[in-house]
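Good morning,

Attaching, inline, the backbone tokens for the sequence recovery test we're adding to the shared suite. The designed sequence is right after.
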């Protein structure tokens, strides 16, 4: 009899897990709290490791959007601009896209309307999870009808994000696992590029405790990221979001910053949330396992969330193929393979946090100096290569 798995969450981690499970011979069922699938989204990137995981999952139609002609500009307090290093200039040559590009590619793999597609139930969430050793009994609720019903599965995969319902039901309250970073992020697509900049340009305006980023992309308008530090997280969710952000960035009076703030009230696709990481001693208990942000949330500053989600799904399918008759051993091996990668990038996120938004004035200066030296070094390398290419080739004797 084919084994059944309930995957909670239709995001990148959930669909990756479903593809991995199906490749291992399981029958996954995906439930999603939202009434429909999300599209669009903000800037994300994949490292080479993430691209390999995408290939492992069969994502051969993944849309990439690396800008071909754009320049990254740093905006000074006085409104001046100068060339800078952007996110795509980091070591490892990350590949640019938006969240919806990866989700669309995974959706084509899931194929919910095909004969061999994965069953997807929208407006559905778990309200109780009970393991009896041989199976997991899950009480499900359809919010569109109010209907509640029980169903049995051989495995439950919680891929339902930072504030995971599965994690709360099977492992305990969020406070046990979520670390506070005293920071907020707001990410959303812009309708058009800021005035006086090239269509694929990227922009950075960073002050102590606040930063505005615009990520230029190929074949679509840029996306924006507003991030700032605060010790009163709860207060950030009170009142109008756009007005609060205007107050935070009020003195950053650059036309490009005003352009971003003016676009915020009209967007229908926006992430506005506090920044956390999830740290757990283990990601599985019996026949319940967590994946993606529910398990390890590297957070947006890491730039590795999508790579980790794809890698988690690909590895899950791999270990289940290798250990088809021993679920406990397979999940233990899955975690052992992923844990070093996750731990390393959770630590790296602290350093990358300062790249996104320096948390004090001293670090603003350190960041500015480091960027200046890096840009100068890159310019020197480029000029040397151009001179070498233009130099005449000596005649051979």
């Amino acid at each position: 009899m084919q084994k059944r798995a309930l995957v909670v969450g239709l995001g990148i981690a959930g669909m990756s897990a479903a593809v991995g499970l199906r490749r291992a011979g399981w029958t996954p069922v995906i439930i999603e709290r939202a009434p429909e699938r999300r599209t669009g989204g903000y800037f994300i990137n994949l490292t080479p490791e993430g691209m390999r995981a995408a290939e492992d999952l069969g994502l051969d139609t993944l849309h990439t959007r690396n800008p071909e002609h754009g320049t990254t500009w740093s905006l000074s307090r006085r409104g001046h601009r100068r060339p800078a290093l952007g996110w795509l200039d980091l070591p490892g040559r990350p590949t640019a896209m938006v969240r919806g590009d990866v989700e669309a590619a995974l959706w084509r793999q899931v194929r919910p309307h095909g004969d061999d597609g994965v069953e997807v139930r929208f407006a559905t969430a778990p309200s109780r999870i009970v393991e009896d050793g041989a199976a997991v009994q899950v009480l499900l609720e359809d919010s569109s009808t109010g209907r509640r019903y029980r169903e049995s599965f051989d495995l439950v995969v919680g891929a339902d994000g930072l504030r995971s319902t599965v994690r709360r039901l099977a492992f305990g309250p969020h406070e046990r696992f979520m670390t506070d970073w005293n920071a907020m992020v707001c990410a959303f697509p812009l309708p058009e590029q800021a005035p006086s900049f090239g269509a694929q340009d990227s922009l950075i305006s960073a002050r102590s405790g606040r930063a505005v980023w615009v990520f230029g992309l190929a074949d679509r308008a840029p996306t924006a990221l507003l991030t700032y530090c605060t010790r009163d997280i709860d207060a950030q969710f009170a009142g109008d979001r756009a007005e609060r952000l205007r107050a935070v960035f009020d003195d950053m009076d650059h036309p490009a910053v005003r352009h971003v703030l003016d676009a915020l009230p009209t967007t229908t696709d926006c992430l506005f949330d506090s920044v956390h990481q999830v740290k757990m001693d283990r990601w599985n208990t019996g026949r319940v396992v967590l994946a993606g942000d529910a398990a390890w949330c590297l957070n947006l500053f890491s730039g590795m969330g999508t790579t980790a989600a794809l890698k988690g799904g690909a590895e899950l399918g791999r270990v289940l193929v290798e250990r088809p008759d021993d679920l406990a051993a397979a999940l233990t091996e899955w975690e052992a393979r992923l844990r070093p990668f996750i731990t390393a990038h959770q630590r790296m996120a602290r350093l990358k946090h300062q790249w996104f938004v320096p948390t004090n004035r001293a670090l603003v200066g350190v960041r500015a100096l480091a960027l200046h030296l890096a840009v100068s070094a890159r310019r020197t390398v480029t000029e040397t290569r151009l001179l070498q290419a233009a130099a005449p080739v000596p005649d051979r004797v």
